[in-house]
Specification:
By secondary structure, the protein is mainly alpha-helical. The chain folds into two domains: 49 residues; 133 residues, no CATH class.
Length: 193
Amino acid sequence: MKFIINTLVEQLINNNIIERKMKQEYFYALEVFFEKLIIYISILIISVYLDLLIPTLIFLVFFCGLRSRTGGYHLNTYLKCFIGTVGIYVMFAKWLYPWLNKNINYIFPILFFSLVFIFTIGAVNHPNINWSKTELEETKKASRAMIFLQCISIISFTVLGVHKDCIIFATLGVMLCAILLIAAKICKQEVRE
């Protein structure tokens, strides 16, 4: 993959789209983009196999929308991240989802505790992100606004009679963000000023 990204960046430079001094930044940005794309495509392929495409799309929207604002625990290599992310999705889809499907009354306690944790912590300033103090405060505000909107959405899904699979997977997306925030705090995986 590095060869393909390097070739792409060289083409951008040769076509005067970016300056050579920006090569490393573009290489890194494209590498992260393609790594995430591979993870999401893998999850979507598995979701098609499990006949859970629509709930999985909702899970990804809720999870990615919140995760981009909260930060949280990160693994230190792409391979670990790939295995961990896809593994967590499979665990949710194969074990936690069927259990919640039979015990739907646990959805709102899970959502409530996730809301409390995310609202309390807000965001974790991971060393790879290294937000300034002002950026961190703005990110915490954005994560709190997002968790509020997502909780309102899940409650609205329930009131409107949206299929419970979608409600379960939306809640799992929120819960995973809360778990990753807590894990980052426990592992002290954050920048402190």
